[in-house]
Model the fold of this input.
Amino acid sequence: MNNRTRAKRIDRAFHPVVVFLGPSLHQDEARTLLDADYLPPARKGDVYRILASGVKTIVLIDGLFHTTPSVWHRELLDAIEEGIDVVGASSMGALRAAELRRFGMIGCGTVFEWYRDGKIDGDDEVALWHASAEFDFRPLSEPLVNIRATLARAVDDACLTAGQAEDLVADAKRTYYPLRSYRRLLESHVAKGWPRATVGRLKRYLSRRSVDVKKLDAIGALRLAARIRRNEEDGVPRSLPNRKSWWDMERMLSSGFYSKGVSTGADVLARARRDRALVATMRKELSHRRFLLEWARQHGVSCPAEFRMDFARQCEEARRPRDRGAWLASNGLTPAAYESLLAERALTGWLAAKGPSHFGLDRSFVLEWARQSGVAPPNGRGRRAASDLEAWIVARGPNHFGLDWSFFTDLLRELQMTGRAAEILARRAAR
Done:
């Protein structure tokens, strides 16, 4: 599948349930178990691209491993932070669920339990060679977890001894994952040292009783997701993890903006950067805001709830969107992301309204931050007017003074929160 086709498949994800599925289970069978949008195996950025689509449940089963960057832990964590149920099982999903279970990712199935309990640890355990999407991701090799499960059953059924099974698993583990198969197992140097009767018995067993644990786990994950959706539709409450989300540039650039067609944050930012006057004005304004927020953080200052609610109400009244959900989606925002941006803007608005004197300061917030941080202009410029000094600090920007800040990330957030992101994309579409 080429990148353009893949992006088109991902961009149409408007269903409340999205499943990343490939070779672990045939899609036709999956659809009989769960009504969802089925997307190809996940890779880096795919989860970010669907966050603003209105998705409520994400089921991660298959993901790309070695051919392209894998789906990030951080995008799964951000999905959880948004209140989305994230279920992992079978393959890449089982691995990520074991790694992120403490942060709220829901794991299920045998493979997940093996990763969770330390029985297996490498991503090659679930890796396999498979055909492309046009051939339904047909498996072309046997994943090691299936081999483990099948040989364990063979021991239980007295077809092999535990020692023989361990030797075969060790041989399969040493084999490069695209070459793993039951046929190769029977032709391995381990099996060649056994009596012909033992090899023949194992061959018959493998042809009749082999275990596809990845398929079984995938089926279990889809059934679990179906139960989660039924519970949410019935109003059954659930608890959410309490953690701070990672809002970084990668997320912003990959996030989907849903309107007439689907774009990404990178598209919005590319258009905005062409407006040099906008960039110059916003660089100063956003730099100033960042210093205000840093001063507030240092002093534990927060915005009163009443002011924050009034601010949010004023924003809503100014925009009056006919469909709030559509407005959020067209600006690449989830409800949680929008509330976070509103809270941050309310804080800077409240600080500006109260002014430094309210906090017992005789200078601006920026200059007070500079004083407490030991910041002074070089080359004897300290005697310049306070306004000039503040302008110098703001012009240099937070990064100059060691603060973690990305102007373009904040610019994109500003465009999203004000609704200008959707306007920019609408103008592009009209041309």
